[in-house]
Amino acid sequence: MNIASITEEFRIGVDLMNVLFLLDEYTDTEPAHGVHKIVDIVIDALRNPAKHRTEGEVVLGEIVRQSVSFNTFLMDYHT
Known about the structure:
Distance between the termini: 12 Å
Shape: globular
Mean pLDDT: 84
Number of helices: 3
Low-confidence stretches: none
Helix content: over 70%
């Protein structure tokens, strides 16, 4: 295993922790139905990073989309 792949794996893990931290912050004061809506947006962004997020949607969808797109680029670049 080379240093580039270790760095990529570390970066992906750190990005995931950042997303989970943001998700926790956004959902602390939300009622259950609001949390479900936010989680659905985040899961959709994880599954469909090429899909542009809709106007007025919670910003977490775009943050996750960009993070997944960037990490996918890194993994493709070094393989």
